[in-house]
Amino acid sequence: MFFCARIDAVRASALIAVALAASACAADWTEYRVGPMYVISNAGDVAARQRLTEMEQIRFVLAGMLGIGGLVAGGASTAEANLIWPITAVLFDKQSSYAPYASAFASAPFIDGGATNYSAAYADGVVNPEWRRTIVRQLLDANAPLLPGEAAAALADLFSTVRVEAVRIQLGEALPASITGERRRTWAKFHMLATQPAYSGRLRVYLRNLETNDPEVAAQNAFSISATELQRRMNAYADAGKFTSVAIPGKPINARSFYERRLPNSEVQGILAELKNDGRSFPPNSPRGLVAENTRDSLQQAMAANPRWAEPYVKLAALQDRASAKVPFLQKAAELEPLNLGYWETLARTQAIVEMYAEATKSWTAAERAAPNEAERARIRAERKAIEEQRVDAEIEAARRAKEESERDVKRVMAESDARVRAAEQVVNRKAREAGVADSGEAPVPFKEGFPGTRVTGQLLAVECIGRALRLTIQVPKTPPVRLSVAVMPMDASGKPVFTCGPTLPSRHIEVVHDAKPDKQLGTVGVVVCDLAVFDAPTGHPVHVCGFPGAANRALVAAEREYVGANLKDFSHGEAGSLRAGSHLCKEFGGAGGTHVVASPRDGLRLMPLRVGRDQGQDIGYVAPGECLIEGVDGFFGCHVLPFII
Question: What predicted TM-score, i.e. pTM, was given to this entire model?
Fold first, then answer.
């Protein structure tokens, strides 16, 4: 009998709940809306409008504090505070109608709906201060997402006790005695800023500047005092303990301020079903329902349905196969929720993976700012440092690999050009044999090795004329200037003096060989016996007085590599500085009867026409008038420079 009675009681309770739900559905339900805020009610027009008026006045006053709306040039601004999710307050006519849904709101005044955030109450019930506080937090999340947490919490507490009577708003009534400690003290500080005339008019400036995370700038820009002085005044106000509410003008609201429509029974049933689900499941076509489906298509639809919501971007990033494809979605999510520490950390790590190091640094900075306390900031700094060290190691390894690859590339080009040069030698030597040129049978002798004596390479600074002789001052790298004598003034091919007595401006590159016999009277260390800038002199040229072994003139042509670089820029000459448009630079070095090879792996070098004219006065390494290029070596050119004759 006991069990039967118990079953009957349970059955009766279920029937009562069904009857209550059916009663709620059967009643007339009306939707009232202004902006992103809704009241859905069967409690009659007056109660619904009062509730929506309170919600809208909170939105209006808070927007003014944040600098949204107000008077601008040309009249009143139409800007309004937005929400990430609409707020829908379901207002029942009596407590018994609300009772089947009360458990969903036992721990918090709002639950998630498929396309909105729901609260629920009955018309005669007392408004929970936490309900107002949560509305303010949702408004701050959407309109001042970078506001420090302490300030956001204080504003939420400030509005939790607001009283709204149509267009009259009373702000700053005391907090319940249950709220104590630092939280109450912070509320007191912002109570001063919001209610005292000396500060309230500039509160919007202060709050906007606080979003830059610089209290000093905020205090100076808003109140023209230091942050330390502002804190001193706020502390004194909090210690005094005299908190008086103030009347604030609200938004003009009349009967036409709200949009109103009668809801069909099917829509009401859907709303009540969402309340019963307590945020555990959502209509499949709603934004939250689409995210729960978690497919690429559904997440794209959710993003389109609520573009201010970050979660679809995070979930879509997780579905990407490549780290680089994740970055834009994570970036958008972090921008939508700039104080979400997890989003910034995930973005920074992903950017580091794809070597977006500059962007990762910015993301770590944002993560540090989003951290709620110093311990979290310290943890982020430590992780950031570790990743930076990994980045440096990766860059060093990448540079090593690039260097090895470049060296392999250069070696490959050198091998290829060697083969072409050897082929060119064979062609020239064959022609020499066919012309009856005698072959000494000796190995080719490099041009520079044919001169006995001491070689000096540097920049010619000055030429001093001492009778018929000359004294050259040459700046050699990392050593004091060297002074050498020249027996007689050298002449160029046209019989004109090569040098002008006096300082050489600008200094010019010179390479000579001297006999290493000092002359104390002239203060020189030797006499120049040959200028090694003389290249490919024909047989019988006076250059051979320098002592070049005659046997080498009968040797086969020997091609000598001069320089191999990674690209054409590497060929810039010390005296030239850069390449002349349309010309190719040749190095001022040479080999006896040889082809001087200059090769570039990445830039093709073309042969200049044979017998190009040369200006003797511009011996700076360019292919210039008077220089003769070696014929028959495709892709390379020789350098033939005759600066002076001994």
Answer: 0.61
